[in-house]
Each structure stands twice: as structure tokens, then as C-alpha cells.
Write a structure and sequence with these properties.
By secondary structure, this protein is α/β, with parallel strands linked by helices. It has three domains: about 5-85, Orthogonal Bundle (Arc Repressor Mutant, subunit A); about 90-160 and about 260-285, 3-Layer(aba) Sandwich (D-Maltodextrin-Binding Protein, domain 2), CATH 3.40.190.10; about 160-255, D-Maltodextrin-Binding Protein, domain 2 (3-Layer(aba) Sandwich), CATH 3.40.190.10. It is built from ten helices and 14 strands. It has helices at about 5-15, 20-25, 30-45, 60-85, 100-115, 135, 170-175, 220-225, 235-245, 275-285; strands at about 50, 55, 90-95, 120-125, 140-145, 155-160, 160-165, 190, 195-200, 205-210, 215, 230-235, 250, 260-265. The strands form four sheets. It has a five-stranded mixed beta sheet, covered by helices on one side. A five-stranded mixed beta sheet has the order 11-8-12-7-13. A two-stranded antiparallel ribbon has the order 1-2. The radius of gyration is 25 Å and the shape is elongated.
Length: about 290
């Protein structure tokens, strides 16, 4: 009796919708509504504010939700602990990652992982937008830079370095900027942002830059830089081989920003899953810099 309505209430609270909670639980909206109402009557407490447009938690509902969420997470953890006894990890992993990093670095390793674990299926959605893992039903996300969501578990996989570079032909024609202020005198090849990241006198700085190229494609920006159209700032996996073969030259190295960390992020109730743990460990081993 004490469990009746708990799952329904938790999902209504998280989705702020009876309809979405019903879809999550694969039951009717009316059944979700009845169970939550019965729960409120049993507790003699109003847990939710309901309007035609929105559902939100009352103050009492907030407190009750935190405890109920912990209970459900504990149940999930118990089920995962039992499933860990299985000798072979299996099932579907749903993950998301930034587009270029996913294509170039991540998914080839996921393919290698699946060669070793043939009973695992992977669904990947690549997007540069930050996706809500719980709402989207994702098991895992790869994120770059500072993390803002403290409710998620996170493990560092690797890091990346942003280089400012130009081709020898551009340098021969226009010279090299030796300070951040001199960037204003150069044609900067821009991506989706109109500023670049640097570190000056121990402090991180964003410098606004301008130029004749605005692409949302790192590969196209590299091509433009190789052809002498301007200066570019891009992560190492775009430019490393060109720096090594002389196609590009690294500049403003004294102002290079600290490395950006690359993280595996996942909901707390996923951390005991053998398939998630195996994949995260596999990525950590393959992506970690020496």
C-alpha cells in the first residue's frame, strides 16, 4: 500500500506533466492521476499544484519528492547489483555526444567496444546542444568543458587543447600577432562564436574577433586556414596532423587557455550498470592522454 502512487508521483514531478509520466510508465494518464490523488489523500497532503497549463510541486511535494526519488534510485541500484551477477553485459546503451567529437573520436571507439561485446546495442544521437539525459532517456553523455549539472555522475575521460594557428603562406603575407590586441589587425576565421578563449596573466579571457569567414564546420575552417585565408582557433583533433606536417603553424602559444576536460556524464541510477561501467572504462583507457 505504501508504494502505491510513488512512481507516478515522481515522474509527474520530473516531467511536470501527467501525460508524459503516463508515457514513461506505459499506463494511461487517468491512471496516473488517480494514483497521485490517492497518494495525496493517504498522506493528507497536497503534493502538486495543478493548472490547465502546468503541474508543479508544493513545498511539501518538494520534500516528499526528494525522499521518493532516493528510494526509487535505491531500487534501481538493487536491481543493477543483481544484474551485475550476469557474466555477460547486454542490452541497449543510449548515448549523446557533440557532433564532431562524436564522429571523429567517440563512435569509432564505441564500434571497437561492440566488437568485444556483441550482446550490447548502441543508439547514439550527436548534437552540440545540451540534452536533458533524464527526459530523453539517455544512459550516457559525453560533455566537454565545465560541468554545470551536479545531479549527474561524471568521470573524466580525457582533455583537449585549443590551438590558434595559421598557414605559412598567411604568415608570410600578413605576419604573426604577438599579443591578443594584435588579433584585431588580422582576419580571424570564425565558427559559431565570435570570440576566442585565452589565458593572460593567469586569468581566462574571451577575446572578441572578426573576420570574413563564419562556418559552423571545423573541417571547413581548417581548410580555409590551410589555404591562407586567415587565423583559426580549433581543438587539437582538427589541427594536430597539420601542425605536425607543417601545413599550419601554432601561434600565440603563451596565451593558450588551459586544457578543456572531456567527461562521461550519466544519471546516478546508471553507475552500477555493467554495460555502462564497461563502456566508460573502455573509453577512459582509449582516450586518456599519456
Amino acid at each position: 500500500m505504501k508504494w502505491d502512487g510513488i512512481s507516478e508521483f515522481v515522474y509527474v514531478a520530473e516531467y511536470e506533466s501527467f501525460t508524459q509520466a503516463a508515457k514513461k510508465l506505459s499506463i494511461s494518464t487517468a491512471q496516473v492521476s488517480r494514483q497521485v490523488s490517492a497518494l495525496e489523500q493517504r498522506l493528507n497532503i497536497k503534493l502538486l499544484y495543478r493548472t490547465t497549463r502546468k503541474v508543479s510541486l508544493t513545498e511539501e511535494g518538494q520534500v516528499f519528492y526528494q525522499h521518493c526519488r532516493a528510494v526509487l534510485d535505491g531500487l534501481d541500484a538493487a536491481e543493477q547489483a543483481v544484474s551485475n551477477l550476469q557474466s555477460k553485459p547486454q542490452g541497449i546503451i543510449k548515448l549523446t555526444a557533440p557532433v564532431t567529437y562524436g564522429e571523429r573520436q567517440l563512435l569509432p571507439l564505441v564500434n571497437d567496444f561492440m566488437v568485444h561485446y556483441s550482446d550490447i546495442e548502441v543508439t547514439a544521437f550527436l548534437s552540440n546542444q545540451k540534452i536533458d539525459l533524464v527526459e530523453g532517456g539517455y544512459d550516457l553523455a559525453i560533455r566537454i568543458g565545465k560541468l554545470s549539472d551536479s545531479t549527474m555522475m561524471a568521470k573524466k575521460l580525457s582533455s583537449r587543447t585549443n590551438f590558434v594557428c595559421a598557414s605559412p603562406s598567411y604568415i608570410e603575407k600578413y605576419g604573426i600577432p604577438h599579443s591578443l590586441t594584435e588579433l584585431a589587425q588580422h582576419n580571424c576565421l570564425l565558427g559559431t562564436l565570435d570570440y576566442w578563449h585565452f589565458k593572460e596573466t593567469g586569468k581566462e579571457r574571451n577575446i572578441r574577433v572578426t573576420g570574413t569567414v563564419h562556418y559552423n564546420s571545423g573541417y571547413s575552417l581548417v581548410d580555409a586556414a590551410l589555404k591562407g585565408l586567415g587565423i583559426v582557433q580549433l581543438p587539437d583533433y582538427y589541427v594536430q596532423k597539420h601542425l605536425e606536417n607543417g601545413g599550419l603553424v601554432s601561434i600565440l602559444d603563451n596565451y593558450r587557455e588551459p586544457e578543456e576536460e572531456i567527461w562521461a556524464v550519466y544519471p546516478q541510477n546508471r553507475h552500477l550498470s555493467p554495460k555502462i561501467r564497461l563502456l566508460v572504462d573502455y573509453l577512459t583507457q582509449r582516450l586518456s592522454k599519456p
